[in-house]
Amino acid sequence: MSRYATNRLPRHRGEAAWASILGPGPRYPRLEAECTADVVIVGAGFAGLSAARRLIQLRPKARVILLEAGKIAEGAAGRNSGFMNDLPDDLTGDDHKGAGDGRAQIAMNRHAIAFSREAVEDYGISADFFDRAGKVIGAVGAAADRQNQIYAAHLDDLNEPYEHLDVHAMEALTGSRYYRSGLFTPGTVMLQPAGYIRGLAEGVSRKITIHEQSPVISIKRIGHVWRVQVPNGGVAAPQVILATNGHVESFGIATGRLMHVFLYAALTPVLPEGALGGARRWGIRSSDPMGTSMRRIDGPQGGDRVLTRAVATLRSGMRASELDLERAAGIQQRKFDARFPGLAGLRPEYIWAGQLCLSRNGASVTGEVEEGLFTACVQNGLGTTRGTLSGIAAAEMACGVDTVLTRHFSAEPQPPRLSPLPFRDAVGNMVIRWKERRAALE
Ligand SMILES: Cc1cc2nc3c(=O)[nH]c(=O)nc-3n(C[C@H](O)[C@H](O)[C@H](O)COP(=O)(O)OP(=O)(O)OC[C@H]3O[C@@H](n4cnc5c(N)ncnc54)[C@H](O)[C@@H]3O)c2cc1C
Domains (ranges, CATH) in the chain? Predict the structure, then answer.
């Protein structure tokens, strides 16, 4: 008899702003009964909801129940910056494994984007929540500008389109003179994360059953079925897909191998008309991975606002503290003020933390753990695409379908062991802070 139990559930710090600015969304009842299903999915983020959609496609008659600990779009899926990237961030530097690997990753990312685009069309999700606008990799210092040139050379190798933006073009775009240059790539989709996730949940809920505020506390094998226990009920099913990202470790899977990182973000109130020049929508990620992402959104996405995403902390206990949030808010304010001196001092309406999960070798934890128990977890910070891919792959594995994705995930090595606690967090946070200081301008 196998049993996976957890007493650690997701805890969020700060309001899930993307959902709040859209207003209340559809609600799904708690599970407060005993029932049976063909498949239980645990977690309603990118991975869990994508797994649900793929199961509906492959086994339309299957009875699928999806259990979410919190509310839809309240977790990391509704707390990110919304860059659904087709291109990997690491075409430059030591991680670049040659054009062949780059192409394979790009093809998979585009598969995720195409899958999501079809969902958007099928479920009537607003195009404002899935905006095929592309993104800019911004550079402030000379070193970052050079990085962009190297990245562009790799894009040339891969025959991928891009456009160089000079200081004037960056100002015309952002209304800020802060950026020296930028590299525009057209394939990124800019999500309104809560709008997209809510739409996906609403769409799959036409064929499957969703229960919110129904945290899974144990998964136990009894004979040929898994019994999935929530506080006031449970489901018995022959197959379970665990799509809980870092919380896979809370169930005792991949223990000591995963880095639980919090990222922090802030969103301004709706800007007064004419307060900021430039385009109404744009998204800039920094050319330095430890730099700041900035984004402007407009009316249908939740008002004319600017998002600042900066600061990371390693928190192996999976809790960000109030102090973490306050420290991040101070840094984000300085970043915002430096970019928009005309709006300096404008306090954000929302500040929040969100959890993500990395492995040292960049591998995910996606596969069959034992008969009938699958995982679609560990998205290495790029969960909009990778979460979508791992969810699709876990559903395909559960249906016994052999695809490029199932082969890709089955061939991934497992994440290596990390140094023991508490050194892991102490050293990890020192390294993060050092890298953040090095990227302070960016
Ligand atoms: C500030 C910030 C900015 C980011 N920006 C980007 C970006 O621009 N682009 C990008 O690609 N990624 C970004 N990310 C990362 C991205 O949000 C995550 O990688 C992604 O959400 C992971 O998707 P997932 O479905 O695997 O996990 P999650 O979205 O975390 O979903 C897992 C779900 O499982 C649920 N769960 C956990 N335990 C249980 C349990 N016991 N029972 C039931 N349910 C449970 C959780 O409540 C959660 O809803 C960002 C993250 C943050 C915090």
Answer: 3-438 (3.50.50.60)
